Amino acid sequence: MPTYTPPLRDMQFVMHEVLNVVDELTSIPRHADIDADTLNAVLEEGGKFASEVIQPINLSGDSEGCVLDKTTHEVKAPAGFKDAYAKYVEGGWAALSCDPEYGGQGLPFVVNQCVYEMLNGANQAWTMYPGLSHGAYEALHAHGTDEQKKKYLPKLTSGEWTGTMCLTEPHCGTDLGLLRTKAEPQADGTYKITGNKIFISAGEHDMAPNILHLVLARLPDAPKGSKGISLFLVPKFHVNDDCSLGARNPIFCTGLEHKMGIHGNATAQLSLDGAVGTLVGEPNKGLPAMFVMMNAARLGVGNQSLGLTEVAYQNALAYAKERLQMRSLSGTKAKDKEADPIIVHPDVRKMLLTAKAYAEGGRAMSIYTAMLLDKALYHPDEKVRKDSEEVVGLLTPIIKAFLTDNGFAATNHAMQVFGGHGYIHETGMEQFVRDARINMIYEGTNTVQSLDLLGRKILGNQGATLKKFGKQIEALIAEEGVNEKMSEFINPLAYLADQMTKFTTEIGFKGFVNADEVGGASVDYLRVAGHLVFGYFFARMASVALKKQAEGSTNPFYTAKLQTARFYFARLFPETASLMRTARSGVANLLETDEALA
Amino acid sequence: MPTYTPPLRDMQFVMHEVLNVVDELTSIPRHADIDADTLNAVLEEGGKFASEVIQPINLSGDSEGCVLDKTTHEVKAPAGFKDAYAKYVEGGWAALSCDPEYGGQGLPFVVNQCVYEMLNGANQAWTMYPGLSHGAYEALHAHGTDEQKKKYLPKLTSGEWTGTMCLTEPHCGTDLGLLRTKAEPQADGTYKITGNKIFISAGEHDMAPNILHLVLARLPDAPKGSKGISLFLVPKFHVNDDCSLGARNPIFCTGLEHKMGIHGNATAQLSLDGAVGTLVGEPNKGLPAMFVMMNAARLGVGNQSLGLTEVAYQNALAYAKERLQMRSLSGTKAKDKEADPIIVHPDVRKMLLTAKAYAEGGRAMSIYTAMLLDKALYHPDEKVRKDSEEVVGLLTPIIKAFLTDNGFAATNHAMQVFGGHGYIHETGMEQFVRDARINMIYEGTNTVQSLDLLGRKILGNQGATLKKFGKQIEALIAEEGVNEKMSEFINPLAYLADQMTKFTTEIGFKGFVNADEVGGASVDYLRVAGHLVFGYFFARMASVALKKQAEGSTNPFYTAKLQTARFYFARLFPETASLMRTARSGVANLLETDEALA
């Protein structure tokens, strides 16, 4: 069975040594009293919860899955899930970054980010229950009426009740404009909602007494398409004014999907038959309201793959040191053993280092983005808020797509290190692969992310946001460009940064003539952008490590950071050479293929 | 549920229009009377068997899996598997390319290759039962005593009995030198074999009355390591002189693995407790004897992924034409529908074309290799036999690793086209991914293949075999170099062929100084070599299509071939640019990482 060690030291490195999050966060009045010890202590406890409470039920949850009782429409989560959730609520983990007005602890989002990385590394399927609840919290917090907030937010903050996002219908996933679920206004100001939803994660379960469904539906006279969608809050049980539970609302689970992975999470088909809901936000503006939740969810999905990358790496590393098989090509290394541990083989190291670099680059990028999110929400300076929000918008599709593609590659590499044993359920490695696979699909496929990045976030404002982020890269290059020890990291980064401007302009021009050119280049473009961001953070991490060494540190931790950065630039970053070539090949080789795709 | 259409026209194109297999094969006396109609007719029937008999039980076989009765040690294959196998035997499919001396039909291996591609596309888990049996047939045919052949080959030829390869033990997979199973010589010339084997595909089942296990074990005074391994034939039931079944031999299934995919195939733990076997080949020379089987198996594994690539592509293509979601970026295409079919989106086409190109390149390469195998076995000219065998040896690790890596990418792309629906079991797309995943691991991991290719097959004879294959590329370049219409295909191929020589020499020199350099470059090197071979076949296929068009053909089939070749060179082949860069980065960035991998 796999094990999981919370990567606390690595998180501290990023937070305190690379990003100086305490200095950055204390400039926000709300977080003025944050200090490093508090952050570290919370993460240490969060790590314990992840590794001791939910990690041990990850593999069994996968074997067991969720079970629907077709007569009662109730779903039983796998053994241990409910108890673990009770401990989560009891520990106050749901309230971590929530608003103190509703019982939250008001901690920065950076903390939430790190805790969720660990929860996901320990058990993605379980973590989706609180994850979706937190998304519902955010949507209600941003768009709910005062009455809704007062009634529901305390229970979402404490975690006593959970939440869902009910978007997808059988005929519409990416294209929510097609959705058909109807909402009929009632005399009392409520709505009766009727329709069928599918793929509803955490859609029904026995872990909490009530579930708050956020449901997209159409009002009777709504415009067609995506401008006619409204958002409704539909509780599983009605809630009385004293917050006690009332009657069952007719929103029933009619089926659970049998799927490739995340078996411990109930992916529900929900049937609404005149279920009573209240409107969240304005009529016909459900999609923008839902996007509050969706953007958070996209960062959350990247975080799921980050967690899986780390845990898969840890287990593959341990196995590679232990498993004896063949001798090193350059001569026996373990003379006292009947074979060498497989970590002596260069390609085994390459697979391990790939996963490690993806984890470390992903962690730096995610914590950085979380810090920007804290600024975007509560920084006193409006310009800082706006700029931060813009860069978060730029990085969100990259985190979602780049980190989940990387996570799938990383979990596959880690599984491959196990050889045949990796294909067997009991080692847990193939579960990481199956769980990681959904992350490339849900909350907007990775293709959709790439269109969001290139079409909207970059070309949408003539590259202004990209330039904003590019200024930081320029500053780093200016600062470190003369440092000879940094040249192996700075040179490729500077080269790519330079190329990126031309590359973007070129696609922009082509897209201006034919919009399909954007769609033909966007997926490759996103990976190049991902490497630009990773390259920047790896250079920053290397810079910190070199400074520590210059100050006399002989701590192998910093040597490790340099080795990983070196590996990253030598073995992963060069992918950009091919990606730019294929992205530049033009869309004709895709579109003029009607005979090939007949 | 997925469907499968045998790709007969594509096979005919490769066989008759690109490779001229009939001319090539009729130069072999044994196959002198082969003609195109016969080949096509056999494949048509084979395609029917695949699509009508075993494809319908693929998804259900995955859901159901194999069940072990722990008291009787008997295994039940999924519903329908036994009946389908009876039809396979009845149809004479097992005997296709077997020796007429033992009841075989003596057809060329090319036929077997194509039939197996279709069987694998229809149902990989089922096809492993006859596939392993055929491997056992080949090992016995090459190394068995006359008595063994007479007794066992007719039953393997007819398929009445099945076979296995028993190599792996819990502590040894890649490194068979570590194996511990013991063989004690008996007074009557037989051996009593004791030990534990794991991961034995098709290791126990109810589809045939007897199973012939080929077991690697050590004689009492065997040298240590891989030079002390012998091969034994251990039947499940002893066989009397009249070929009737005798007593049960104590080789029992003690467990079945729960694994990521190929659920329909029983992956058995086998316990041998003094099971009686007979020696196959010479004492202590079991490994070379087993390699007859292993090389065939490696081609077979590439073929499994080829089959999966094709079937996944077919289903994703159908879905992309049907599923309505969003509008084309360049304006509405299906005005009469509420959304455009997703095939209008460039990236959806890219995913489809990637799978298609991998299927078509893989098919050309595999049929070509099968044709060489026919020559290697039975061509009257010894030099042709030797040259063919050498090139088969070169292409075998490429087929195994390149086609299985491509197959994993292709099945994942096809699944991604389905969006969330691809993650659900009932569409069958995620099964293709799970089944395809094992192919990168078993019969020697893809890393092992890359070391076999670069270390043994290429550097092992100073690139002589590679040059042999390179001569064909040179000939094509010389022939088509002046043809302007071919330049888009010939130029990149010629460039890579030129680079390849330098690239190989460079790694050879580095490897001479430090053998680990080979291990640090081999995986990337193999993919570059794969593209060199694919590039060669895509150029040949494009050349055929252009000739047909020049002759006045307006058949869209040839237009499709040109589009696919164009896509391949524009979007897939450029991967070589990055691969050569990373392969050249040197092994230090992998080996000087002890702190990073602490």
UniProtKB/TrEMBL annotation, chains A, B:
Residues 82-160 form the Acyl-CoA dehydrogenase/oxidase N-terminal domain. Its EC number is 1.3.99.41. InterPro entries: Acyl-CoA_dh-like_C_dom, Acyl-CoA_Oxase/DH_mid-dom, Acyl-CoA_Oxase/DH_mid-dom_sf, AcylCo_DH-like_C, AcylCo_DH/oxidase_C, AcylCoA_DH/ox_N, AcylCoA_DH/ox_N_sf, AcylCoA_DH/oxidase_NM_dom_sf. GO terms for molecular function: flavin adenine dinucleotide binding; oxidoreductase activity, acting on the CH-CH group of donors. Residues 284-451 form the Acyl-CoA dehydrogenase/oxidase C-terminal domain. It is an enzyme of class 1 (oxidoreductase). Involved in the assimilation of dimethylsulphoniopropionate (DMSP), an important compound in the fixation of carbon in marine phytoplankton, by mediating the conversion of 3-(methylthio)propanoyl-CoA (MMPA-CoA) to 3-(methylthio)acryloyl-CoA (MTA-CoA). This is 3-methylmercaptopropionyl-CoA dehydrogenase.
